[in-house]
Amino acid sequence: MGAVERRRWGKDAGGRSAWVRGRVLAVLAVVTAGLMAFHSVVPNAVGRLGSLLETFLPWLGLAVPLLLVLALLRRSALALVALLVPVAVWGNLFGGLVPADEDSGAHDIVAVQHNVSDENSDPEGTASGLIEAAPDVIALEELTPSALPAYESALAADYPHHAVEGTVGLWSRYPLSDVRPVDIKPEGIPEGWNRGLRTTARTPQGDIAVYVAHLPSVRIRWNGLSSGWRDESAALLGEALAAEKLGKVILLGDLNSTVDDRGLDPVTEQMDSAGRNLAFSWPATFPVSRIDHVMTRSMQVTAIRTLPATGSDHLPVAAGIKSES
Length: 325
Hints:
single chain
């Protein structure tokens, strides 16, 4: 550092050194780190602010470059040192997570999960895109009566076994049995709303209970997050999973939040997932969150990645799954 630069980082006109000025920036850096590390203590009582924070938790890291620029402009050594705290926290939570390579992770089963959108104008093209990933099972949500025949026709050759309940469906290379709806309808939603199914897939790894679910949407409003129906539906899905008698379970679905969101605790307490992997699936035009999930019990998700965009506002996700025994 040259003499001129040292003078710039010395005392300012008010006599404050680089280790004194920038205290507000230093506090903001520590607060950012605290929100990431202790997000679970942010209350949900008002506007479900805790769930809102947890839905977009990785993006809190964007505060770091902003604070870095301000710290440099302020020439604050104090703020620069304080920024090491959120950098360390973000690195611990998310730094080791990158989108998985197509062939990474040994697996026995490949599963694809996709909310195809009830406004998708190209179901045939969507189905073809999913087939290219060569999955063993494909779960779809937002199936409409008009589009369902197109999906059935396009997938029939490669996936001779399928089950549909309401607006969700499963296509499989393996025989399916014991197909039944799963009641995840919150109170207050009209009759005929059916977004859950359960079936048994007979695989080389033995019988596996496969669930497909689409939890209610949430809305971000001026006063916070509106997620009451989603949370109630998650509790019902958690009860169904807890009552499942088969040891091996796969859950595929659009759960309308991330695994960090405490609203999904009834589900995540029953299942394992790929966690905070950065395979963001929504919205398709600029993905900022992974709300489409592949979760397992007595099995392991070894890798998860997004697939190319279809006619939906979600990206498909593909996951490798390995049996634990």
